[in-house]
Here is the input.
Amino acid sequence: MEEFLEHFKERTRSEQRWLSDVYEGVRRQLYPLISSSMGLTVEQLTLAVLSKVQRAVGSEVTSLPVSYRFVSLSELTREQHTACCSSLSWSSAHYREQARKAERALPNYKALPRDNILLMGYLCDGPAAGASDGVWWVRDAGGSVPCEMLKSSPLWLGRLMFFPTWNYIPQNAPAGGGTAAGYLELIDPPVCVTPEPMTFDPGGSLTEAMGVKRAAELLGQRCDVQVCVSGQVRAISPLLLISARRFFCLILSEEDSSVPVLITEVKHQYWRQTVCVGQYICISAVRVCSLRGWAENSVLSVTAQSRLHPHVQLQENTEDLETHLMDTDSQTHTDSHSPDAHVTSHAPDAHVTSHTPDAHVTSHAPDAHVTSHAPDTHVTSHAPNTHVTSHAPDTHVTSASCSATPVRTKHSTIISYKGLVTKVLNAEAGLYEIDGKVGLCLAYQPVQKCGGGLRPGTEIQLHNIHFLYRPSPFAADVVLCACLRSSVQVTAFSPLSSGFETAGTQSSLQRHLLEKNLGASQYLWLCYCQGVIKERLCPRWVREERVCVVAGRLLDCVCDTEPKTNRKRDIYREMLQEAHQCPVTTYYVSWPSVVLWSVRQLCDWMSSEVWASLSLSSLLPPAATHMTGVELNALLAWSADTVSLTKAHSQPLLLVGVLELSSVHGTLQLRDQTQTLNCVCVETDQSGARTTNISTAWLGCLVCLRRCTLVMERFMKTHFPSWKHLDQPSYITHKHCRVYLQFCVGDLIIISPSAAMSISLMEKKRDQTHRREDGEISNRREAVKRGRDDDDDDAQSSKRPLTSCVSLIFRLQSKQGVMFRNSSVSDTRSHSHRLQLSFTARVTSLGDVQCWNIDPKNRRMQERETDGQNTEMEMHFVDVCVRWFPILHPGSLYRLIALNTKDVSVLKAESISVKGGVKLLSNPALLINNQWKIHTLTDTQSDVPAVMTVSEVLHSSSAPEIVSFYGVISQRITLQEDTGTKPSVQSVTVSKDSSVEEGLKVRLTVQDPEASGQMIQVYVDLSCCPYTPGLLPGASLLLNDFQRKVSKACNVYCRSLPISCVSVTGLGSVGSGSGGSQSPPPMMLLGDWASGGTQQCIVGQVKGHVVCVLSLRLQWMCSLCGSIFRQGSCSRSSCDCVSAVFQAEAKVVVEDGSGEAQVWFSSDTICELLMLDAGQWEGLQRHVRVKGYVRVYTRGHNMMCDVDPEDSLVQYLCCLCSSNTVCRQINLTCRQRAQRTGKSQLRKVCRGLTEFISKFPPALQLHCLQIHTDTH
Ligand SMILES: [Zn+2]
Ligand SMILES: [Zn+2]
Here is the structure.
């Protein structure tokens, strides 16, 4: 050390300190690795280092860069946790200028901070001696770091180098915990510190270098000689690692012939970093061999003796791209070697002139090997994007036959491209953005170490890359896709820091790509899907490592129309075969285009669509013009819209979510991390299906839905005085909506099954196998294996954790509706009663409580479970336990499980305790604990309790007061709030819960699906229970425990009781449901109708004759208070309403030969009854306006009026009513107004001059719904 410092006596103290640091660093880190053959001392080596450092600093040779500290590689990787750059040669101004420029280009990123570090080491082709991995590494005595260079030379291998300018990029996730915690980007070429003795052995005479044409001929002959081949590099494959063997290929070309060269020798693999496309090279000692993996085709293969001789060649013809030629400026640094003849150069002319193979060989005269380096002349620069514009979409179009919308396929073009990486879209997926608009997909190449240096701000050059135009709606319009024949070369490192750098390990996405041999379009969709799942379902429902599996299943689901190509990738063919073919040669145009909406997106869309699609007038019937405000507003109070999922978006939509139960709504829900959405789910969509058997196994399943109905229900409080004011939204005082989904169980596609679903599938499969062939054990094993799936370790009994539990099997007899009730459980803390959601189910337990060591979930019932006695009991579901409501179905079998206990008494039902000497007569009851689980057992549905039909409820004389029946909704009307009476339980106030629709009472018209014309009105009070979705026209319902009532007019109707329960069993939809799909009402004979049978009709068609008009009333009514409106004002003095509606009513006798009926016509049918045209009808209304009210009626044989019989209007009406225009053949659809009134009537009948008194059955009272004009 002292001797060394002797040289610098005149230096300052600080300089001397710096010098001794450098000396110490060299001694420790560099000297131990130097070849002894060099015969250098530490002092000599340090002096050599110093001379290079000083030269790098530049002009001021005398000063020492004392601000730069010597750092060993291990220190660098250990201590440098942020990306940085260091340069001896840059001035601060230069650095700042460069940083500013880079930040301006990509404003989202900051420039790399500068650090002053002296970095030196040996350039090697592996992290340690003998561990070549084809990547450049810098090594010193204490450690090693991989590095990237823009251009490199084989001459640098194993030499001690000083690195003047570089970036260090630490990796956040060190791969495999190795030392590679980051990597270096060597910006300026490294400087050789020591003059190394010439160790380079040409290995084969270069004088015999043959051209590509000749070599190609040699391939055909398969002769076993070692030759030296030279040519231009046309393509380079990435470094591949296949079954522990690492290799890469080159394609050398000359004019139109080419030869593949395989580089399998471990020690030559670093060549991959030193050659680039367009360069002329010469490889010695290659031999011909046949490649098994490529159908025994012949290739050239390097041998251990091979040497790479890069030589400079100006290319003019091939690609109009800038090509960096290595070895140019590096030569200035490896000064001691420049005169040597390692680098051969073909004079450009030699290639142009020599066309024949022979001439080619001879043209390589020895003098041609003289190096000729005119460095800069080889670099030609081109505008980066010139290639893109020239590639208009290639129009090779075919169509895949089997999908609904034809999927277009296209051929990609192969181009070269130069650009700037502007964004790392998804490093894991190998997706980048170049120049702000072009996508780059590297997924078809093996992952590069350190991400290949592709950071925002990196300039790259791509060769043999596929140009895809609109391969996917989820990627840029132009996507460049690299395959195994493409090469990605960094031409300038990014001066920017991009935050996270992910280590290059193969992602599961890329593994999936390989396994499934996906096309580019599908892969891009997969990446989109993966991002979506990560965001919406991970980690709560999908574990991070399973995201890709789930995405893959969704892709399968989306592509199921596409025939699967299970062809494996043939990598050799892909890399080497002329007439290039690879997975991206063809691609689908914008397919798959399926969009994945989150639950929130769907909800938002529905919530906006529900009001956007609202047209008030379309909600009203034609008769709305005759309605008073009250009638009108009642019709506007509720309306609904249904949209099929397929119609909601221009692209096909897919919903993905997890099925769960809601304890707030007592409904099934679909949810993801963004939101939850209520669902109505039925088993089949055939109307009249009577089961809603979604089983518990579905809970927790990750499902996707392609087909379902989006339902949007609107609730409005409006105060429109009349229909004329509909365009004034100020009359809407309140509005809100409810949105939910409707689907059938059959439309659910399982993406990831729940544990219970796995068991259920496994058992189903096992059953099938048993049934098919009992003996075939192998089949069963397979079935079991398949059934288990890969998801659920729970399904594997051997792995199941031991959890003691007790269980009880029960069959559900019936259930009440969910409702807010005073909880029957006394709260020990406070004695105040609370309103809680609850329902009670009547069940039969099929045995005794059983003990288990393992949670049986929904596994098949064992014999012991049903051994005991059947007991009737009640189960109380209170508070959050009401979530079980949607999956409990009458007639089904369930297993109730209490986990973590061996105490069988917890599931024992108790008789209700005796209080104050009063004993309740009821079954023993069990209060369901919210920790308990309920599982549907597979062999269910044996005894579905019988229910009545609508007709039976209507006409059965023995019908009980409490009835259960089924039917189809044909109409739903909101009953106006009865402001006078408060709901009975209001005092304990139902919390302002969004689940409840306050004060909502509806009237449902329920039709008998098997007997058209049979319908019943059902009054349902929805004010004390969570809102029931799915009560839409067309929906099939199961109505349990409703009260059957008979009105004063002898009409049978039903109303809900607190115990009543409505279940939707078939889906309804607005538009198609109400009447449209129903069969027309039956044709009725009036005699039959009047006599009334057991199957008496409520609605029917009548063909008859108008005998006479009994009465006709025409009036103008105040639309607000309903009083007569006369001469422009309401007749009620206190009312200042100015709007009036015209109303009319007629009572007509219709006879059809078999009998007669009194038919009532209302405002909307009278015009047609009187056969008036629109003008006459208008005129009539105008005339009535003066008096406000006219009524004519039949007395004896004449029509008359009580007031003003001489009035011309009265005269006209009397005349009209008795004319043949009105008294004519007529065809009507009628509804019965009232059922049999019981008493017969005595009536006078005149026959000629004789008068009889006769007993008549009560007249049939009908209301005309429609007049059919075609009376034939
Ligand atoms: Zn390709
Ligand atoms: Zn009024």
